[in-house]
């Protein structure tokens, strides 16, 4: 099986704290391109990037329209826009209707990323109080990618991981503390 | 290693992608609407949503209806167009327009503004209000265009769900509004209706950025969150259209997350307020005098 080339991460309620822990645990040598969609991120994406950069071991930037999804960088979806990945692996934004009350929507990011990266993608669903992300994770798995879900029992808000597990299942379901080490194992050459 | 000569390699394109491509071709061949230069990922999403909303089993059925059913074109266009907007969306942009652009506009005896992709008109009314408060509206002509006829009709009426009013009022104040937004609308039941006096210098017209040409000489072009739906070449063509529509020194305002990094025509514009995506047509441009 080919090594993953990209990671997409989705979270909602409780997500910022979870992200801090997850991003702090990533090996700084990870070559994968990483994109994050967090509903409860600040309306000011600069601020959110700054906050996450305090913890992250890799550079954090806003995902910019038309820019390529770059390896070794954590790209954060701006608030108010859906973030999509084109098959050219460049980012695209849209202000289409909200999906499950959310814009950016995790489903939109995951579904488009699944088409762009197919089996070279890892999708991660973390804590959240809604059902966004489940359909996206299903698409990741159908494309041959790897699905990771935070153990609902360990999540600040268990709904999102639970719905994702019900609809898509997962290759790995584990507590937050174990997710970064797993990603490092899966993703380092 | 190589597959034997004559044996076709399985194509990489998924069935869904083939169907979407055929749908887009049908739309162009049958009706002249060309979506082939739209950013693929979000276009595909909207086509699939349309199929879902129309309860057709697949996109091919949409194509059949498009070809054979008179009247289905408008349904399809509605589905593919994204008339999602807000009054004073990104209030700091409207504040910047008021503080940095209006003083220059004030030097013209007659002000022409083109708002391209006006959706349901929220931004047109926002502009009209700010121009009125700046004392400029009497000599302004706003051309508000979109290619979605149903959206234009709603824009003309200026009726919106009342639940939006709270956010819009906050936006209005953050944009430097001098009164309260409620001074500009009447509330009835679940709806608000914008004061139709705000329409007195607005022409709502159908204009397709893919196929239609320059139609006015503008001092300000406002086109926010439309170019994000276009591929690089179409974005570039559209920017050239704006350049050719603007007077020398005219202003262009785009959406705050739109990037010009991939458009050669962007070099005709110099940033006035880069973070708010406000540009000015530079003197080295090929635009008309
Ligand atoms: C997301 S809305 C933007 C509304 C508003 N400018 C804003 O930012 O709030 C995009 C609008 O662009 C219009 N549009 C898309 N393609 C177009 C085209 N080729 N010509 C004219 N309008 C187009 C759509 O119909 C839709 O109303």
UniProtKB/TrEMBL annotation, chain A:
Active site: 12, 39, 132
Domain CheB-type methylesterase: start-end pairs: 1-180
The organism of origin for this protein: Dyella telluris
Protein name: protein-glutamate methylesterase
GO biological process, one term: chemotaxis
Pfam families listed in its UniProt record: CheB_methylest
Enzyme Commission number, as recorded: 3.1.1.61
InterPro entries in the record: CheB_C (IPR035909), Sig_transdc_resp-reg_Me-estase (IPR000673)
Keyword entries, A-Z: Chemotaxis, Hydrolase
Origin superkingdom: Bacteria
Cellular component per GO, a single term: cytoplasm
Alphabetized GO MF terms: phosphorelay response regulator activity; protein-glutamate methylesterase activity
Catalytic activity: [protein]-L-glutamate 5-O-methyl ester + H2O = L-glutamyl-[protein] + methanol + H(+)
UniProtKB/TrEMBL annotation, chain B:
Alphabetized GO MF terms: S-adenosylmethionine-dependent methyltransferase activity
GO biological process: methylation
Pfam families: CheR (PF01739), CheR_N (PF03705)
Entry coiled-coil feature ranges: none
Transferase found in the keyword field: yes
PROSITE patterns, alphabetized: CHER
Domain of life according to the entry: Bacteria
InterPro entries reported in the protein's UniProt record: Bact_Chemotaxis_MeTrfase, CheR_C, CheR_MeTrfase, CheR_N, SAM-dependent_MTases_sf
The keyword Lipid biosynthesis belongs to this UniProt entry's keyword annotation: no
The protein, known as: Protein-glutamate O-methyltransferase CheR
Keywords, ordered alphabetically: Methyltransferase, Transferase
Domain called CheR-type methyltransferase: residue spans: 8-260
Transmembrane segments: none
């Amino acid at each position: 099986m080919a090594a993953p080339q990209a990671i997409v991460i989705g979270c909602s309620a409780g997500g910022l704290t979870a992200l801090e822990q997850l991003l702090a645990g990533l090996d700084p040598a990870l070559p994968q391109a990483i994109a994050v969609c967090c509903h409860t991120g600040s309306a000011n994406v600069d601020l959110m990037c700054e906050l996450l950069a305090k913890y992250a071991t890799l550079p954090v930037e806003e995902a910019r329209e038309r820019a390529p999804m770059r390896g070794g960088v954590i790209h954060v979806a701006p608030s108010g826009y859906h973030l999509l990945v084109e098959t050219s692996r460049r980012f695209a934004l849209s202000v289409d209707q909200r999906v499950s009350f959310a814009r950016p929507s995790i489903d939109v990011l995951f579904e488009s990323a699944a088409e762009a990266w197919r089996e070279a993608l890892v999708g991660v669903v973390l804590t959240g109080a809604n059902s966004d992300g489940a359909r996206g994770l299903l698409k990741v798995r159908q494309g041959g990618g790897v699905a990771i879900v935070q153990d609902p029992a360990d999540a600040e808000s268990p709904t999102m991981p639970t719905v994702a597990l019900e609809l898509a299942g997962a290759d790995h379901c584990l507590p937050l503390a174990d997710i970064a080490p797993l990603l490092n194992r899966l993703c380092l050459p | 290693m190589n597959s034997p000569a004559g044996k076709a390699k399985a194509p990489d394109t998924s069935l869904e992608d083939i169907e979407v491509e055929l749908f887009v071709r049908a739309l162009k061949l049958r009706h002249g609407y060309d979506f082939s230069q739209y950013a693929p990922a979000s276009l595909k999403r909207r086509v699939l949503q349309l199929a879902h909303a129309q309860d057709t089993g697949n996109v091919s059925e949409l194509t059949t209806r498009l070809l054979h059913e008179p009247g289905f074109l408008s349904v399809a266009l509605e589905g593919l167009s994204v008339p999602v907007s807000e009054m004073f969306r990104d209030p700091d942009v409207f504040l910047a327009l008021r503080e940095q652009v209006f003083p220059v506009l004030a030097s013209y005896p007659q002000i022409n503004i083109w708002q391209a992709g006006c959706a349901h008109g929220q931004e047109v009314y926002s502009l009209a209000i700010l121009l009125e408060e700046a004392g400029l509206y009497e000599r302004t002509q706003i051309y508000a265009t979109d290619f979605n006829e149903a959206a234009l009709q709603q824009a003309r009426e200026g009726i919106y769900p009342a639940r939006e009013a709270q956010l819009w009022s906050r936006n209005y104040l953050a944009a430097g509004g001098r009164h309260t937004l409620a001074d500009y609308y009447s509330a009835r039941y679940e709806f608000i209706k914008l004061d139709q006096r705000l329409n007195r210098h607005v022409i709502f017209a159908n204009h397709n950025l893919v196929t239609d040409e320059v139609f006015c000489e503008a001092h300000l072009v406002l086109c926010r969150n439309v170019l994000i739906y276009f591929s690089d070449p179409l974005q570039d063509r559209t920017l050239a259209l704006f350049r050719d529509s603007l007077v020398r020194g005219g202003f262009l305002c785009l959406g705050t997350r739109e990037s010009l990094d991939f458009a050669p025509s962007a070099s005709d514009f110099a940033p006035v307020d880069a973070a708010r995506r406000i540009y000015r047509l530079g003197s080295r441009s090929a635009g008309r005098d």
